[in-house]
Design a protein that fits this description.
Pathway: Carbohydrate degradation; glycolysis; D-glyceraldehyde 3-phosphate and glycerone phosphate from D-glucose: step 3/4. With 139 residues, this protein is mainly α. It is 39% helix and 9% strand. It has 2 domains: 62 residues, no CATH class; 44 residues, no CATH class. It has a two-stranded parallel ribbon with strand order 1-2. The chain is globular.
Length: 139
């Protein structure tokens, strides 16, 4: 399903920042990529692959401990490397960070990157957020 979603939306690059589970999963996904594409084509799930979507560039970085992506409250957030790329390249970036139950890292990352939209568990989105987000991104 992940491969299908990436291909259907023309996503060809992933940057995974996390721990052992995230990076191990990303490496498995990368190693299975060509087989997943063959399976999608064989099963008729994708009649025509988007140009360039057969390639997947995947980067990974450990989310802790001296890697440049430091724990909350330290000098650099994971998203600081992404700013100002989205605006200058007229692209939309989606960045997911650790913090399933605590949104501090997401909040700091959003501030550091100049995010237009941010989700944190302490403040769930209100009804109709999808339309508001699309409108904001369209600007």
């Amino acid at each position: 399903r992940a491969a299908r979603n990436l291909v259907e939306h023309g996503i060809t690059n992933l940057c995974v920042i996390g721990g052992d589970g995230s990076l191990t999963g990303a490496d498995i996904f990368r190693s299975e990529w060509s087989g997943l594409l063959e399976e999608l084509v064989r099963d008729g799930g994708l009649g025509l692959l988007r140009q360039g979507a057969t390639r997947l560039a995947l980067g990974g970085e450990q989310g802790w401990g001296g890697t440049g992506c430091t724990p909350p409250g330290t000098s650099r957030s994971p998203s600081s490397a992404f700013h100002p790329c989205p605006c200058s390249h007229q692209r939309t970036f989606v960045l997911e960070v650790m913090g399933r139950h605590c949104g501090y890292l997401a909040l700091v990352s959003g501030l550091a990157s100049g995010a237009d939209w941010l989700f944190i568990p302490e403040s769930p989105p209100e009804d109709g957020w999808e339309d508001l987000m699309c409108e904001r991104l369209g600007e």
